[in-house]
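Sample A.
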Amino acid sequence: MGNDLTGKKALVTGASRGIGRAVALKLASLGAAVAVNYLNAEEQAQAVVNEIISNGGRAITIQADMSRTGAVEQMFQTVLAEYGKLDILVNNAGMAIFGPLEEISEADFDRLMALNVKGVFFACQQAAKHLADGGADHQYFDGRDQDDVAELLIIRGEQGCG
């Protein structure tokens, strides 16, 4: 990628495994301090943090249920208390429901929407309040490097939102 993120502070939601883990590790390898958000997988999240730290980076874990607005607000307060600012938000936490459409309950649908829509919206809202320069710059990993994730949107606070 060639981007130097030294001094930048990042929050990656759903970062205990999969794409979130890969993104957290990549951001750290580029110099960013990373807040690793998780819901239930504390050991996996701590393993991501340990890997970042063992490679010379800075990272913390933050447990938060992204479907709960109060938890999202508290997560941002924790990041700000630890790092003093936020430059990058990666909204990765999400879920899918597998199975026949006619068997998906209203409760399952509500859970999906709370995490995949409401959680993303309120994380972006908090980021808009707290990004270091109050705005957004959209940057994409292009997938050319095996550590990159194709077309993953990262919001960085360098320009006005628009």
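Sample B.
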Amino acid sequence: MRELALKAGVSTATPYNLISTKANLLTLVLEQEFREFRGEMAPLAKLGGLERLLNTIDLLCSHYASDQKFYFGLFKSAGTIDESSMALVMLEGGRALFGDMVRAAIAEEDEGGGFAAALVTGVLLRTMRATVEAWYVSGWSVARFHDEMAFAVRVVMMANYRGPVAESLRRELTVLQERLEKHASAEPFAGALASG
């Protein structure tokens, strides 16, 4: 809060008077991030369920990669305060952002193989969070982060499909697996953490 006051050119007490805690500040930042990302997603609204979901995940990775320093700082800050409150803000925001997309993606399955959308959304959000944390901790390249996220999301979503959609996802996973193996050999330290 002191740094915030210094950068804003106000007294140290001002941020505390306006925002009161670091947790409140981070909550406001996260809420603003969700609003801004929704705006970035707007052009994807015309896409169908699974295609929209996968393109949104790609956009999210690009969004995070566009300002790695800021997002790594945000993730680090969120981990140093009451994690339950930050996790709740992120979970609620993630459910609001991805819940309908997951529901629409599962509804595309013609053979009725999909699981409950709320459960799949929860698994997807936890998987995405773990992938972002691994990127932060392991020092992956941006390309590897994109591929790791794409692989993880497709693995989660593939359980909801049979037939042609499942086969298409399987082909995409095979290509991604080959790319991840190349990343692991090019980034041996990060590869050891991810595969160990």
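B remarks: Confidence is low (pLDDT under 50) at residues 191-196. Residues 83-107 form the longest helix (25 residues).
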